[in-house]
Amino acid sequence: MRADARRNRDQVIAAATAVIAEEGPDASLNEIARRAGVGPGTLYRHFPTRRELIAAVFRERVETLCAGADRLAAASPPGEALTAWMRAMLKHVLTDRGLATAMMDIGPVAGFDCHALLRSTAGRLLTAAQAAGAVRPDLQVEELFQLITGIAHATPDLPHATRLLSLTLEGLHAPH
Amino acid sequence: MRADARRNRDQVIAAATAVIAEEGPDASLNEIARRAGVGPGTLYRHFPTRRELIAAVFRERVETLCAGADRLAAASPPGEALTAWMRAMLKHVLTDRGLATAMMDIGPVAGFDCHALLRSTAGRLLTAAQAAGAVRPDLQVEELFQLITGIAHATPDLPHATRLLSLTLEGLHAPH
DNA sequence: GTGCAAACGGAGAAGTTCTCCGTATTATAG
DNA sequence: CTATAATACGGAGAACTTCTCCGTTTGCAC
């Protein structure tokens, strides 16, 4: 890869990170290119679709989130590790508006599959929690994600979202 | 209101219903105007914002949904009436992509507040269910909506969404 | 009928995404 | 160190969007 190409690519990702943080994942690609100091053509050559750009931006964040899972699994009993990780994921998802949508909507892209990485990470935690009898055995990983991203979509407020997650974990029916 | 104005207004709503059903709530307003056989200016005069147009489109549906609540309340015990209505709402919300977003995002508009109508309807069912001890007493109406619309956002498939709702009702933890 | 208030609709301004292609830059071979 | 070929650049512009303005047409009350 040529030096100027690499440099431009990095500048576009940096600009995209900033602009998406400000305006969400629907931010204008022209604006991102302008801030990166490149022409629109350059942006589109490096990232033919918006999805690929978003995937590049979020790659680092997702990897951080998944790395945390191992620490949690080592430090807590399986059931608690899972719920703690779900809360962590919820927090990450809320940090940038649209991360949730991005993660669920974006398929495998350019040699990095956010979704698959998250799924295998969550899958390990879930299986362990189920083996320990802490979580209902018929629960699927996909369902976990869908509930979390659904909650994240419903409110931007972290305490509020955490409350919704608790409700979901415990159920809406009255305890008796 | 002049006859031609009324006629055009109705045609725009009819066209919007069709186009939104096909393309979701982000459908092009130009396309809606074209199909209604009016100019863009006419559409914008009747509905200055997209929100007002969407509110008009969904008004009828929401009223139908809320009317069903009374029938349910009369026919079933409070707890079952609530869960049945939640399933009905989920179904309605899934029927048109974006109804969920529309209902939650759109505030009071043009003398009709989708959100308030839904809230008071659901509030009645919820209070009754709580009084009967079927639902946890700390649950808020808003939370109910947020969970439902979150689920609807997570998947367009009704059986799948219904399963997520069941999970939420019963909780993710293992029964023991 | 006739007049005027009201509504119409299209042109167009300003924004978007995305493409094409002539120009400029870079790496490399001699 | 220079010449060349491959590569990347970036701006112009096409096709779309939302939304506004205003000259023209229409319906209704008198």
From TrEMBL, chains A, B:
Residues 28-47 bind DNA. It comes from the Bacteria. The keyword Transcription applies. Keywords: DNA-binding, Transcription, Transcription regulation. Signal peptide: none annotated. InterPro entries: Homeodomain-like_sf, HTH-type_TetR-like_transc_reg, HTH_TetR, Tet_transcr_reg_TetR-rel_C_sf, TetR_SbtR-like_C. Residues 6-65 form the HTH tetR-type domain. Transmembrane segments: none annotated. This is TetR/AcrR family transcriptional regulator.
